[in-house]
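TICKET: design request
STATUS: open
ATTACHED STRUCTURE:
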């Protein structure tokens, strides 16, 4: 299983977004306050940003999964690695503050 916390995804010519596998690390969705905290950190670097907290349901007759991710617009910056590091540090802080164990543990 891939346990990458945060990665950069190219979404168009010169456009990138940062994806945080929040649920994998924290076992829950990000709170509004946590997303606001990440947005403020991005604004320190980019000036402005757009961040989405996403819940995706994948289902089939024999399985069900829910994925909690946070996706941030990285703009056209060439400093994607700095933004990825900000995302990873933020997610680790959130996990340390409040983590839920998966059912059946």
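STATUS: resolved
RESOLUTION: sequence designed for all positions
ATTACHED SEQUENCE:
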């Amino acid at each position: 299983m891939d346990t990458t916390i945060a990665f950069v995804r190219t979404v168009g010519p010169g456009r990138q977004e940062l994806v945080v596998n929040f649920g994998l690390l924290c076992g829950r969705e990000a709170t509004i306050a946590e997303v606001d905290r990440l947005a403020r950190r991005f604004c320190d670097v980019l000036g402005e940003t757009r961040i989405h907290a996403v819940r995706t349901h994948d289902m089939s007759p024999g399985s069900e999964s829910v994925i909690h991710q946070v996706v941030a617009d990285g703009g056209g910056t060439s400093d994607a690695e700095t933004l990825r590091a900000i995302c990873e540090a933020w997610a680790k802080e959130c996990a340390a503050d409040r983590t839920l164990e998966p059912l059946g543990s």
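CLOSING REMARK: The longest strand covers residues 63-75. Residues 6-97 form a domain with the Alpha-Beta Plaits fold (CATH 3.30.70).
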